[in-house]
Amino acid sequence: MTANELRDKYIRFFVSHGHAEISGASLIPQNDPTVLFTTAGMHPLVPYILGQAHPAGTRLVNVQRCIRTIDIDEVGDSSHLTFFEMLGNWSLGEYFKEEAIAMSWEFLTSAEWLGIPADRLAVTCFAGDSDVPRDTESAGYWKQHGVPEQRIHFLGREDNWWGPAGETGPCGPDTEMFVDTGLPGTAESRPGVSDGKWMEIWNDVFMEYNKQADGYRRLERRCVDTGMGIERTIAVLQGKKSVYDTELFTPIIARIESITGKRYGEDDATDTSIRIVADHTRTATHIIGDEAGVSPSNVGQGYILRRLIRRAVRHGRKLGLSRTFLSEVAQVVIDMYAPIYRTLERKRDEVLRELTGEEERFLDTLRKGEHEFEKLLPNLQKNPARVIPGRVAFRLYDTYGFPIEITEELAGEHGMTVDRAGFDEAYQKHQEMSKTESAGVFKGGLADNTETTTKLHTATHLLHQALRMVLGDHVGQKGSNITQERLRFDFSHPEKMTDDELARVEQIVNEQIERDLPISHQEMTLEQARDAGAIALFGDRYDEVVKVYSVGDFSREVCGGPHVAHTAELGRFRIVKEQSSSQGVRRIKAVVEPKQ
After folding, report:
1. Domain spanning 451-593: which superfamily?
2. Using an 8 Å Cβ cutoff, are 482 and 571 in contact?
3. pLDDT tens digits, one per residue of 75-84
């Protein structure tokens, strides 16, 4: 069974059981600051699990793209991935354990659906503890479907419990389904033991408790949340030993082979590097090509993206490549997934451009950093402990932009380790010094005090006023994040901006730059600032005495700075993207460039 067939069968099965098919959400969570990416199929549905009514009803099914980077250093083995697709079905206060388990069993074993022989299946249930009883109810339903007692295993919280999103909230036991892979395993083989014998392919979570400060209470509205990973499931169904042996990776690996001249299966080191390039390029392509996609940067999602790209480049070099190549691999990924996720085709050029640009920057960084590492290596190897001091690793990072992860990889190749605690301490001191230097000055989401960031900060003021002129006075700043690479500005507006509106905003900003307006500031009370017509958005978050920055006769805003002296210093302003940030909030990303 192919991945496309599995997607189709799963959706058809649950639709036939009264579920409404809903679309998957963006990989970039829009209203959840606790995570950088959508990490599970249930993630976008948390508000509805918590009680909000879903417009499609109480039985739902979909396919959700997910990203988990907690095991990024494990990618390269036969099973770990950073990007995967999760099939999921949900009951929002309707059916519960009995019907969920019945549908799971039918889909797994029926010849019409997956047709897995019943004697190849085993399950796990929650063993219970001092807070919550043993889940004998789920075990009883599995027995009713013919699962023998010796293939029903009770495991603890680490394996069979889904905790609340925070310290308190909905939670409950889960029951997990495993398939016998046919591999020999060990004497301790059972579901939950990672020896290759049993592979988990499905998980039914039963949200039946509400964790409170004083203990667990039964929920009146119980929910079911399930998840089946496509990559892992088709590997089992196709009898493959690895997810990388399925059609979701073989075309990508074939392109890497043609580019590098290496052969997958040649040796362990080659296989590891090919898998890393394949996985990381696939993930980076989906991140950039998402409807709310991000670009490589030094913060948040952009940093994770940068780390993925740079790790792929590093392993491309291990495969003998000294040129840019990721865009060639990404073409295959886009061709494979664009029929399902159509935004990838629309953003094809952007994906390829971003990958190549980041590759070029990193290849330059690698050349300089590796050269410096090789110069340091003879002295480093004299250390009997074979440990690279944290201050040395930080100097490579601070001076050459050399990522700590790459330093650790290089150290490992030479039988050494890095004093990560020492690096973290040096990094923390650097951060604290930066904060001290900028205290009281750099507010409003500025990453640093560089010339480019300062220009972008001034451009944000021009953008804010231009948006109010084009869209109306309802526009207000909802947040900003400014790095050396771009400005990101969130503002209140109920709908997507038209191309004409964006063009007009961009034109107004550039007109003010052409006017070479002076930028000045005055100190006054907040009340005086408001009387003077200055925009002040955050109420009591300001100090009693504030700075009011004026851009000529164009805009006046309460702000902590910094700014350029005249608008002509900005060069040319260009809007890169306009997109949704959250309900009623839009987001603009823009850059300033040298005037041509």
Report:
1. Threonyl-trna Synthetase; Chain A, domain 2 (3.30.980.10)
2. no
3. 988 888 999 9
